[in-house]
Design goal:
By secondary structure, the protein is an alpha/beta fold. Helices cover 55% and strands 10% of the residues. Helix 6 runs parallel beside helix 7, helix 11 packs antiparallel against helix 12 and helix 14 runs antiparallel to helix 15. The N terminus is likely disordered.
Length: 429
């Protein structure tokens, strides 16, 4: 049996051989396209004017696997908590993210309006005693009748101790009759509100508590024929003291994956795959920065968007399109750090923090795309680079917020570390 030292030697030899091969490729690349010229070319790519960004993002939006979740339930039924659980962002950001859509609905685009991967439509008018349920139903029907290529799912949200559900059942029945092709998930929430007083923690199986099981069966019976799957969830706040905070999230993810088309469920699974994100890696010492922690909830969806675009055989699914996605991401991160940027200003930031980094990648890893760098970057590379750019933007804006001049060397080092970690997660070759 080989010793640990022998194993380590063999393990080290393989990366050394790869590094040697990359060095030969890099030398050849410099003969074909010097790094300085590559950097100039890359800088031109980042000089995307606002009209170009708008046009490119419009096409990208049409191709993204965006899913719309129509949340139907009374106020305080846990709809915003579902959004928080599915996106991972804070309650404050979720609250600020919803914008009026119609008289009785509001929408929240995640991660941003420019690049939405999840669109949540909340029926804010439900439960208003002055509102006629029929008018709300007609409003929802008018919205659902709008032509769109995006898949939709209805999430009926009911508190486990609420049995005044006649209006909700009427709405669900009308929508089911008119749109039987739209899957419906019945989410029964706020389980801890009917726990026995001796129950201080979530059980392993929620229906093991008699009061929960009895109420759940009654709600399911009340909505018989109006839903495809049902789940028990309890998405609480940290101060509520229950662990886990998002009780039943895995069950809900599985239900969504079963109800949605494969591409959309895969994207959502990536968004919900907490703990396996390439953003975590070995950079745990930086997770204490609340701004960066929030920004990472936007970096990952943008990296998925970049990978999606790179994998789609569009005539212009190349660096300019990916740049537009990344410009949008940097603008969003800047906003989190208190910096409101136009697309052209965000493009300038991208150029400033990433030019040298990309030039190195061109020399070391993009030789297979020469001449002209090819038209399409691999999906995994696009995702890993987008992660690196997002991490670099956090450092850049964090320095500005702290009143410091951004350090280019530190930004490059953070991007290199993030790219290395992300490319392993995304299987970049």
């Amino acid at each position: 049996m080989p010793t640990r030292t022998a194993i380590d030697s063999k393990s080290d030899a393989w990366p050394d051989r790869i590094a040697g091969g990359f060095q030969l490729v890099a030398d050849k690349a410099r003969q074909i396209l010097p790094v300085d010229r590559a950097a100039q070319t890359v800088s031109r790519w980042f000089s995307v004017d606002e009209t170009q960004v708008a046009e490119i993002l419009a096409t990208v939006r049409a191709q993204l696997p965006t899913t719309e979740a129509l949340l139907i339930g009374k106020p305080q039924a846990g709809k915003s908590s579902i959004v928080r659980g599915l996106t991972g962002v804070s309650a404050e950001i979720v609250g600020q993210g919803f914008r009026p859509h119609t008289q009785s609905t509001a929408r929240y685009n995640y991660p941003s309006s420019e690049l939405p991967l999840l669109v949540f439509t909340d029926t804010v008018g439900l439960g208003d005693v002055d509102r006629d349920p029929n008018s709300l139903i007609q409003e929802l029907i008018g919205d659902l009748d709008t032509e769109t290529n995006r898949p939709r799912i209805i999430i009926l949200t009911v508190k486990i101790n609420d049995f005044a559900i006649d209006t909700l059942r009427q709405i669900a029945s009308e929508l089911r009759q008119k749109y039987p092709q739209i899957p419906c998930l019945l989410a029964v929430t706020c389980l801890h509100e009917i726990y026995p007083t001796s129950q201080i923690e979530h059980p392993v199986e929620p229906t093991s508590i008699e009061s929960v099981d009895r109420a759940f069966r009654a709600i399911e019976q009340a909505f018989t024929g109006l839903f495809d799957r049902s789940v028990l969830i309890d998405f609480t706040l940290v101060e509520d003291g229950y662990t886990p905070e998002f009780y039943g999230l895995e069950t809900m993810r599985t239900a969504l994956a079963d109800l949605l088309p494969e591409a959309e469920s895969r994207a959502i699974s990536q968004l919900l795959d907490a703990g396996k994100s390439p953003l975590d890696g070995n950079s745990g010492d930086r997770l204490g920065n609340i701004y960066r922690d929030v920004a990472r909830h936007y970096i990952l969806p943008c990296s998925i968007a970049a990978a999606t675009v790179a994998a789609i055989p569009l005539p212009f699914a190349d660096l300019p399109v990916l740049t537009a996605i990344q410009v949008s991401m940097v603008g969003l991160i800047g906003k989190l750090y208190g910096q409101t940027l136009t697309p052209s200003q965000a493009g300038g930031v991208v150029s400033a923090i990433a030019g040298g980094f990309v030039a190195q990648l061109v020399a070391r890893q993009l030789i297979k795309f020469i001449p002209g760098f090819g038209s399409i970057i691999s999906a995994s590379w696009a995702a890993a680079y987008t992660v690196a750019l997002g991490e670099g933007a956090c450092v850049y804006f964090g320095d500005l917020m702290g009143g410091k001049t951004p350090d280019p060397q530190q930004i490059q080092a953070v991007m290199a570390e993030a790219f290395t970690t992300a490319k392993e997660q995304f299987k970049v070759s």
